[in-house]
Write a structure and sequence with these properties.
The protein is mainly alpha-helical. The chain is built from seven helices and two strands.
Length: 192
């Protein structure tokens, strides 16, 4: 368990707790995905490739995951060597590369995603729906401030308008996924 600090200033307490929580959740994900031969980052790359419209490029994966293209390229390189992905040269632009999940990658992704959603349900099981909605609202506020800090002058109203459409599209695609029931609150074993 991380050290619990008591701060007079709630700003410091929130900031430290935010970092500690992120680190602990990441360790849990690494443990769960590691049992399936993946890192958390590799699982995220596989999910992105699965749900981005074809053809999928490393740049699109980086944008989807909010990472830089160089770090995604390094992860992809390891995944190609592990037999999880293939790189295919784009026929129209030979300089461009498309990413395709191998059958081995699909099998591992399916198993790891089920285990990942079981982890999500376990970690959030003590929160009520109202607590989760409050947490979403609070994290969205912090995320928006961070985005504005990194992108001064961006039109935040347009980004806010597009977010529900983008999220709805993502949720629709995830619902088609084998374990998509995790998004609806139903456990696969409960479905008839």
């Amino acid at each position: 368990m991380p050290v619990k600090f008591g701060f007079e200033n709630p700003l410091m307490g929130v900031w430290l707790l935010l970092h500690q929580t992120y680190n602990m959740v990441l360790k849990c994900e690494d443990q769960v995905f590691g049992k399936h031969g993946l890192t958390t980052e590799q699982h995220a790359v596989l999910l992105a490739i699965k749900y981005i419209d074809d053809p999928v490029t490393p740049t699109e994966v980086a944008q989807w995951l909010d990472r830089n293209t160089n770090s995604i390229s390094l992860i992809v390189e390891r995944m190609v060597k592990a037999g999880l992905l293939r790189r295919i040269r784009d026929l129209r632009d030979r300089r461009s590369v498309r990413l395709v999940i191998t059958s081995n990658g699909k099998d591992i992704l399916d198993r790891a995603t089920v285990a990942g959603w079981e982890l999500v349900q376990e970690l959030l099981s003590r929160l009520s729906e109202e607590d989760m909605r409050t947490l979403i609202r609070l994290f969205e506020t912090v995320r928006e401030e961070a985005f504005e800090h990194l992108n001064p002058g961006e039109d935040m109203e347009e980004i806010r308008r597009n977010e529900p459409k983008n999220m709805a599209r993502f949720m629709k695609r995830m619902a088609r996924y084998g374990s998509g029931s995790a998004f609806t609150g139903n456990h696969p074993a409960q479905e008839g």
